[in-house]
Amino acid sequence: MSKNNNNNNNKSVLRLKDYRVRSSDSLSKVVLLHNLKDDSGKFNPCKGGNRHTWFRRNVKSVAFMFLLTAFMFLLDSVMVSVFGSINFHGSSSTRNSDGREEDSVAHKERPTVEMYGRLLNLASSALVAEEFKQESLNFWEEPYQEASKWTPCADKRHPTSLGKPGENNGYIMVSANGGLNQQRVAICNAVAVASLLNATLVLPKFLYSNVWKDPSQFGDIYQEDYFMRMLKDDVHIVQELPLHLKSLDIEAIGSLITDADIVKEAKPIDYIRTVLPLLMKNKVVHFLGFGNRLGFDPFPPELQRLRCKCDFHALKFVPKIQEVGSLLIKKIRKFKYHAAERQLDKQLLGDFTPSISSKENYVERGSSRYLALHLRFEEDMVAYSQCDFGGGEHEKKELEAYREVHFPLLIERLKNSKPVSPAELRKLGKCPLTPEEAALVLAALGFKRGTYIYLAGSRIYGGSSRMHPFTNLYPNLVTKETLLTYNELAPFRNFSSQLAALDFIACATSDVFAMTDSGSQLSSLVSGFRTYYGDGHAPTLRPNKKRLAAIFSENSTIGWTTFEDRVRKMIEEGQRVRVRGSGRSIYRQPRCPECMCRL
Q: Which biological process annotations from GO are given for this protein (predicted)?
């Protein structure tokens, strides 16, 4: 019975029906076998004589068996009701948790996909052993004291500050594409361009996308008045164009500027040469898309500071998002709070920052801690990568079909280029980490089986079949959909950017943030926010996918201790305190003189 129970306990909650049958069967067998032993304890199938005599002698055991079986059924029902609502791939007939409609995919249960079965077994054994040990390595804390010597100061006036321009060359309009995080970058880049060109910025608009299907505008996500007030000494900002310019046909006069008109990561001189003459001639230009159309170096220091001021100070979520974000954090932390208020929480949650009243008990830091994980393993990411994830021919055909529908330009490019094998792509670190790989990394870092993990997004390709290896190692996995009630989430349904804002809050305020793809905008902005406001106590785990691929390639021979050592060394090197390098995103790496002050 012990062996069966141990095996059953390692099964996912999604297999509870199987667990129920096995538990009740094994229980019946144990009780019956117990009553078929003779007085010496040996098995005797002839023991018992008359069946009626056997029943009278064993009525208590029979009653106990039925009561315990009933209890197992009740426990099973409770577990299904609590955990059964976790759905990692949404519904084919509705929008998923991020507001995007998914393609119709058969929702029959797929077989579990495991690429590293041997390592999973080693990890499972290691996690059992870890329960009886004290943590030798503590990835819950920043490993380098130097991190606490950098403090926020982008909002402070500097003697060389440019200030608001006296003359106005015209108006800049921006219609930003993408999701929440792409739009956030576009907003702050637009602020910098407006200052560079001595222009007035019209409050940015957000383009409606057939992918995101979210009609949200600036004021639905960020506090407009606060944004304008925070930047009033740096740049002119208005809510709308003046009447005499509203009637103009922007495209007809040549003032519509698309992403095709500006190179990616353009330099300030590019805007001065191409955009400024149009602005001065027509008094208005309209940037359409504006995705990553402003580089980071070379760039005037004061404009870099302005970008930081915009991102880390001026963009505050509206009270509706702050309130539900605060509730989400309370539920993740099980209504236990840190003893001291953190500026990280205050900046994101405003007046809804959880506070400690005389009627509430607080716990010391760490007692209610959680790890936030951003798994970039959505179907679009997986399909675009062209990697092999161990799902066989079915996976290959499914992803090929997805690429043909959603990435026609990629298909054309592949026809005219030399093919790169999936194995080579993995070796180069080009493949998204699977949930299985993410779980193995966390296990190697010493995070215990009971670690409370918040999963951002939750639209995992392959659904529960992909998540089984993860939840078998780390069962305490939650999402905003499992923590918040239907009514609490109702105001955000069909608004993907507002839902993403809740994930942003949960990830940024976590005790540890683990990313699986450093190129992700959410991961980049969250890690930058934690660097800026974390006070040296907001660790971020950044795996190097190329190095990790080399480690995983030895799956069939590598020992667990060696695996642990190599993974830990990789993560520790990624946590070193570095000043922002040339060309690096200031939103992701704000540790530089233009953005932060070193004590």
A: fucose metabolic process
* Residue 540 covered by a domain: yes
- Give the residue, 567 or 98, on which the prediction is more confident: 567
Phi-psi group of 536: left, alpha or beta (phi > 0 → left; psi -120 to 50 → alpha; rest → beta): left
Share of the chain above pLDDT 70, in %: 77
pLDDT at 298: 94
**Per-residue model confidence as pLDDT tens digits over 360-389:** 444 444 458 999 999 999 999 999 999 999
- Helix (H) / strand (E) element for 92: namely none
Name the pLDDT band for 458 (thresholds 50, 70, 90): low
User: Tens digits of per-residue pLDDT, 196-251?
Assistant: 999 999 999 999 987 778 999 999 999 999 999 999 999 999 999 999 999 999 99
Q: Classify residue 37 by its DSSP letter.
A: B
339 shares its domain with 308: no
**CA gap 414, 400 in Å, rounded:** 12
* Domain total in the chain: 3
Coil, strand or helix at 349: helix
307/417 same-domain check:
no
Asked if the structure places residue 147 within a domain, the reply is no
- Shared-domain flag, residues 372 and 511: yes
> Are residues 591 and 504 part of one domain?
yes
Separation CA 155–CA 132 (nearest Å): 48
In terms of domains, do 302 and 344 share one? Answer: no
Alpha-carbon distance of 86 to 482, in angstroms, equals 6
Written as six digits, the tokens of 392 are 């066989």
Rounded CA-CA distance 172/25 in Å is 72
417 and 464 assigned to the same domain: no
Strands 150-152 and 596-598: antiparallel
Residue 114 has pLDDT above 90, yes or no: yes
Instruction: State residue 109's pLDDT score.
Output: 61
Cα–Cα distances in angstroms (integers) from residue 84 to residues 80, 182, 219, 456, in the given order: 5, 33, 36, 18
Q: Find the mean pLDDT for residues 81-98.
A: 41
Query: Quick one: the chain helix, strand, coil %, rounded to 5?
Result: 50, 10, 45
97 within domain boundaries = no
CB 491 within 8 A of CB 33: no
Query: What is the per-residue pLDDT for 337?
Result: 60
Sign of torsion, CA 71 77 81 82? positive
Q: Tokens 């990568």 appear where?
A: 385
- Beta strands (DSSP E) in 248-354 are 256-258, 284-289
**Claim to verify: residue 480 and residue 532 sit in the same structural domain:** yes
Is the pLDDT at 144 greater than 80, yes or no?
yes
Q: Are 332 and 354 in contact (CB under 8 A)?
A: no
CB 437 within 8 A of CB 469: no
Tell me the residue range of the domain where 580 lies: 117-142+319-355+367-377+432-598
Indicate whether 339 belongs to any domain. Answer: yes
Say if residue 244 is in the same domain as residue 289: yes
